[in-house]
Design goal:
Largest sheet: 6 strands, mixed
Low-confidence stretches: 4-27
CATH superfamily of the largest domain: MoaB/Mog-like domain
Number of helices: 7
Helix content: 10-25%
Shape: elongated
CATH class of the largest domain: Alpha Beta
Mean pLDDT: 89
Structural class: alpha+beta
CATH topology of the largest domain: Molybdenum Cofactor Biosythetic Enzyme, Chain A
Strand order of the largest sheet: 7-4-6-5-9-8
Number of domains: 4
Length: 440
Amino acid sequence: MPLFSRSKGARGAERAEVPEPVVEAAPPPTPVRHLPDPPAVDASGLRDIDAHRDYLLSLVPQMRPFGIGLMDAGGLTLCESLTSDLDLPIYTAATVSGWAVRASNLVGASDLRPIIMPMAGEIRADGRRGAPLTPGTVVWIEVGAPLPDGADAVVPFERTAVAGREVEFREEATFQQNLWLAGSRVADGDRLLGSGALLTPRAIGLIAEVGHDKVLARPRPRVAIVTSAPGLVEPGLPLTSLNQRYDATTPLLAAAAREDGAQVFASPIVPPDARLVATAVSEQLVRADLLLLVADMDGDLLQAMAGLGSFDVAQVDGFATPLVFGLVGPEGIPMVVLPARPVPAYLVYELFARPLVERLGGQEISEPELVDGRLTTPLESDPVRTRLVLAHSTSAGVRPLPVAGDQGAAELSDANAVAFVPAGVGHLPAGNPIVCWMLD
C-alpha cells in the first residue's frame, strides 16, 4: 500500500558492555549474496519512497516461530490456531444456595398442591460433587458447589419450607434454573485465537485460563545498533570541545524499536574509522535479526563493509543523502544505514526500518497516518525531490517548524507531523492545502 495515499480505514537502549573493536584482522569474508534488481528511478535518478520500502520488505522474511512460554509471549504474534482443551466453567455449579432437584419431580407444584420430598444430603462448595441425586429426593447445595449427577435445577432455600428431613415445594422448577453451566463460557474444542492474533495481556490470560503454558509464536526481533560519527559523546559524559555533541540518535532509535516490539542492543559509540565500524558491525551479527548502523556512509566505509555482504545504495525521494541497505554476514542479516542526525535518522527508521521490525516479528505492516491540513506559514518546494518538513498540526492549521541551521531531537520533540511537500510545485502560501504524515 503506498505510504502517501489515503488509507480506507498506524525506553533507552541497553548499552552492551563490549570490548573496543580492534583492527588486527579484517572481518572474515562473507559468501556472495546477490540482491535482486532494484526498483526503477525517475528522470531525476530518485527512487520512489513506496518502491524503496517495498523493495526492502521483499528482502526480509518473517522470523521462524517456536514454542514460547506464556510469561514471555506478551506482545508477540501467534503463529497457530488455539482451541480449548476443557470447559469453562469445568463443572455445572449452583448460583444460589438451596435445593438441587430434578425439575420433572416438581411438575404441578403449587400452594394448593405442594410437593414434599426427602432431603438426601448436602453438598458444600469444596470441590466435591457428592453422590448422584436419587429420583424423588433433594440435596441441599451451597452456592458455587458442583451440581450432583441427576439434578438439573436449584430451588432457592427461601422459597421452600423445611420440616425435619423433608422439604416442601409450592412452585415448579424450570430446567437449568439457577445454574452456571459447564462450558457456558468456553467449551472444550472452542477456537480461542487464530493464527496472526496479537498476544495482548487479555489474550495471554485467556490462554492461561484454559491450561496452555506455551504458544507457537515469533520471538521479538533483536535489533542491534552500531553508532559512529565524529564528535559524538554518550549522554552522561562531559563534552570536552565545541565540536562535540551528545548522541541523541541512538537512544531515540532504541526507544522507537522497543516500542515496536523489538529487543534492543546498543554498542558503545565506535570511532569514525571505516575498519573499526566494519569490525563492530561484524561483532554484532551474532545477536541481531536486524542491524541499524548509525553513520554517514561514505566511500571508505562502504568499501570496508563490502566484505560483509551485499548492499543497495539508492537516492530515495525525500532524502538528501543516499540510503544504504545490506544483507550482511553468513546468515544475510538485514542492515539499514541511518544518518547520524536525529531527524533524518528517525524518518528513515519510521519509513524503512520499522516495517522490517514488523515483518520479522510477523506483525501487520503499519501505514503512516495521513491527514489533510492547511499551512499557517508559507513553504517552498524543492524542484527535484519531495520535502519532508517537520511541523505541528492542530485544528487551527499546520505550522512548519523553522529550519535555523540543523534540526535535532529538540525540534523533533516539538513536531507531531511531517508535512509532505511534492517536488516542483513552487511557492506554497499560507492557507494552501497540505498533506501531513502524523507522527503521534
